[in-house]
């Protein structure tokens, strides 16, 4: 057995043809005839030099504007141009070049010159002797003599040709000419071969041509194949999903500016949008993804993609030369006149801004769309390009509902709105939420939302994973500011943020501002036109973790400071946040005062307040009036939900508190109880008890007082619930007249131009009385509807008064009656404008998503009345994907019937 080598190879297992390891290769034996070896080496060196020089000519052929290169015909290398023909004689020598070395070529050239002069060969001939050494004294003397032919010249190291500057420089040896050729080969655009490999390949092709193959010629238009230039479109848009769901108000791929920067978190659907928009784009579109690509390689690779689409094929006569951004410019310049292209560059955030600018400047007439994740350096980039970074609007609520429905999870409208807020409508975030709801929360969208908002969910979402990667790289100050904005929940001005930061212990304003800029640069913060800032909606669930990092003391200071900042603001977002802070900071009495105000139930109040109010109602240590106010609020919520059993339970609790309250119960509390009792009596049909209670309560109050008017309205309301619509309507009109006298209003104030009415409402010290006047009109309208009677112009002033007094829910309710009034007199376009420009914006701005189903079903009918049956069907069908209440289902069914009836009518004949 032979000796064992490391790795288990045995010496005696080597086959006869196996190459031994380098350290075992024997040294070559000395040649028997050294002179013969010298001659052989010199001969092959000369031929190799000649072939490499021909390769150099070939690599510059297109740049020189030549048509063809031939080898080993009348001279070593021939190059033909449109008007001239070069004959190159390549000579390599150990010593100086002598006249004897070139004499034969010069004399033979006389015959060649004659052929050209006779017109048998085209172009003006030139003979150029190329050598690796300097001419000897004798040759130099001859070249200076007057009889030296003007069309014969020499080219040697350090002496370029004066006219044919494109010719490769000569080198002293093979290494020199090979190195030069290699550098030229690296400049071949779209090359698939390494520079050295391409040179040796071309040298072999030259040598083969010298044998007579392929007519010994290389045409310029054949060079791409000879160079193995790889001009092929490697990239294309990722395959879009089978069902594409568009963004709301989705933009086109190209806009007014030649360059647009579209940013968004991973999962925002940028690439999918671009792929879809590209299909509609009238320009030819090239997609290019720079992800994981070295910046230096980007321009050339992008040039290849553009060239593959626009320059390759039979129509292409040449390919541009250059490297890097130069070849991109060249490709752009080679585009046919009048061709404008669109280019989508994806993941542009992975490129340095300077490199992005170079790309843009190399494509001056192209429409370039840059897609990337938000980064701080994109702010100066956008400024340099003279553009503003854009973001896709995200999915709308119908699309969110459709995505959940596709996973078997049906959402009601308010829950769909919650999902939209949690995910910011970003496609990946919505889709993953739908899957998680299906798999973990038994298809219960509300349960999913509650778990995410409370941060009690156990399964991480892609949304958290994506945003956490960004979050981890934030500075400590930026994390703290994120926590503060998370606690605030509402947009803050810069001074307000500074106050919250001070409450949390960040006392340096510059540090806070720097942290805010850091968040903005990463797309984690949104800035409004008025300068206020807030967190990106998608970040809100994750940002709660930053808030948890604050100490308990700091959190308390921040909550108290925020409560002070928000107090007194009427905007719904700030008011709602302030209400929840009241509960969290122990200001229950203030919260109870709010529940007793007319407008408290008119907007989308925070639903979690119900739990706080319910605790107050059951807390026996609380004073009687506070508990009575709490039961009143709970009763009102029950009334809105048509939960009459709960309504009755809270009214009876108010009765018990009034009986035991003693001196704590005053006229206001007694009137409040009576108004609730009247509604209960009406619902149960106890009209006699209603009349008795009304007269008894009325006898204890002065006439023409606010308490007396409140009782009269509650009595009319009770009659309505008892089904006494005629009496209820009459009582409502009489009370409306009383309110008009009290407010000093004339009929002209209520119809037509209502500017004076709005001014009077705004100047009034008791604006709630204007709202109560609207309640009277509204009750009359409801009675007329029940009686199928005409309610005339009453709905319009009621709607306006509700809008003026901030009674948003009631304004939408009466607004729908106004729409019906307009439809009866064929003012369909005005009716559509009212829904689109007032009612739906109010429902959206004041967080009343539960009203959208009714609004949109009515809108569908209005659309059908305008003649747009397709839009009407689309609108009504979009509601089918929502979970709806029985009343909403009946409404949709009824409105669908109207739309189809309108659709079946014969079209009016053309005039």
Automatic annotation (TrEMBL):
Region (Disordered): 1-29
Source domain of life: Bacteria
InterPro entries on file: P-loop_NTPase
Name of the protein: Uncharacterized protein
Species for this entry: Streptomyces phyllanthi
